[in-house]
Amino acid sequence: MGHTGKIIIDFSALAALYVFVFFKKWRGKGRGVLAVNTLMYVYLALVLYFTAMPVLSSLPHIFSHPYAPMHMTPFEDYLRGRGGAKMQIILNVVMTIPFGFLFPFLWRKHRGMLFLKTLLFTFLLSLSIELLQPLIDRSSDITDIITNTTGGIVGYILYLPFSPFARRLLG
Q: Would you say 133 and 68 are in contact if contact means Cβ atoms under 8 Å apart?
């Protein structure tokens, strides 16, 4: 099976999970909750596409190669002038801006320490991706965790002017 077919399997599994589990759960909580949760779900599916897919077809092979440890020197590619490093930094920041923006909408009723929760969960999302990537024969890098977390912070800052609307939209 080709790469595209493997990705179609992953997206089919994600679509089934959405339709049979999450849609039913979120629909009962109102249109605003359904919309925000669905946007976050689609966003996370796209993050998986760019960072880890194909996943399901990789599962039988995850232990058939050595686990490469995370590269732990921050911004080394950039500091050494390696091609594409600047663009990778920008893309990693941009990739998690939607997470930092949408996440506070999901926690609107638990407003205390919302910035710290957003920061923590953005970090955990990035760390999870970076720990998963070597299992599917991709490299991982501490710079990605730093830049992804920065993107979550930017997203949270962009959320702030919308926070009054979040309360009205989501109840």
A: no
